[in-house]
Amino acid sequence: MTRSLDGKLGIVTGASRGIGVAIAEHLAAKGCNLILGYTSPSSKSPAEQLATELGNKHNIQTLAVQADMGTPDGPKSLVTTAKSHFEKLNNGNKFQIDILINNAGVAQNNLLPAVTIDQFDVSYRVNVLGPLLLTQAVHPYLPTDRSGRIVNMSSVSSSAGFPEQSVYGGTKAALEAMTRTWARELSENATVNAINPGPVLTEMYAGNTPEFKRFIKGFIEHAPLMRARQGIDSDELVKAAEEEGGRPAYVGEIAGIVGMLVSADSAWCTGQVIYPQTMSLDPFDDVLTLEDQFFSEGFRQGTEDGIQAGKIEGRSVGLAKGYEKFYESGRIHARAVVWANRLSLPEKSTAAKPPGSSASASGSAQQPHPSSEPESPQQKTCSLPPLAPNARLEKNVTTAFALVEPDTLSKENSDEAVNDFDDRLKRAQGKVKLIERVTGEVALTPETAEHKAPEVKET
Description:
Family: Belongs to the short-chain dehydrogenases/reductases (SDR) family.
CATH class of the largest domain: Alpha Beta
Pfam families: adh_short
Strand content: 5-15%
Order of helices and strands: EHEHEHEHEHHEHHHHHEHHEHHE
CATH superfamily of the largest domain: NAD(P)-binding Rossmann-like Domain
Keywords: NADP, Oxidoreductase
Number of strands: 9
Distance between the termini: 92 Å
Region (Disordered): 348-388
Number of helices: 15
Radius of gyration: 42 Å
GO molecular function: oxidoreductase activity, acting on the CH-OH group of donors, NAD or NADP as acceptor; quinone binding
Oligomer: single chain
Number of domains: 2
């Protein structure tokens, strides 16, 4: 993996387990220095151990900081602690936070009658107020060249309407709303996006009740990448997928999406909620929108058929035009040969030669020989009348012949070849008009049939 984030500093909250650990490992592999946020004392050891391992493995600076995102002072204390540590570590150099991953969150599922005020309060403090206060604390230390990256970890529960998630789904919908607002307010500092991972193989997902998993089975069945794979996924996961409709995502797959959003290549993407998969949030949606789907599919197929028909018609027209042009070039070539012979003939001659032909230096070219036997009085020779010597006429005939000489014309199906052919044909037609003006003759075509052809002499 290339170290595309070398020298940058990022914050990952909820970094002691699950998706947070995977994101931290992914960013570290790309060279990003890390501040790993965790909440409870029980997470202290795994968070500090992760920081040490990533620092040694990837030669980066790391710091694990305990801060409760559900308290008014927790987010600010995380930033203050990190600032003090990294300024001291880097000899007082400017403290800048390039990446913020608001990953910490809690999920307390309950059907509406059982929801308590305490559950509501805790969920909104951690999932909504926490990201808001942390982003607020980070704001003064964001880049000023739009290179900053903020990613909020949301959930499909924000819009799916899953049972038991009145509170959790509401917190994630609020986070997505803030994502769109921050994308505008922080546009000169950073891009701000959110991710809806769907079910992910974590402790949080494993803690869901069988009833909840049954509720979301239809959702999972509509997600194209959630099919469990024999021989690739674990036997346990494959077996569970038979009951649950498919497998959850691996944490590394979600970390990869985060990696894309924090890269320099994502600079034109902000205010978006990213679904790693095409998911149907409601099994009945496909039925209710069937008419729209048929219309869209019919329109798409009609457009494709129209394009194909246009191409076929275009080929037919192109072939017809091409035939006409080659036919015309052949006529000009034949007329040029006749004119050349008439220019080179004396009053009586039986030899004919194309333009440019001449005897070889050795004199080996055949010359017309008188017949060894006297011509019978009954024998007659048919020939066109010779043309009077004319240097300009001869030049035009030679040029016309050269322009349409078949061996020099390209048969390639390319714009350059077609344009060259059209240009040569047009120039040859111009030469023909000049020749016809000098000779007073025109070709016999349906349009010029009323003109008289040159008189044929019998000798």
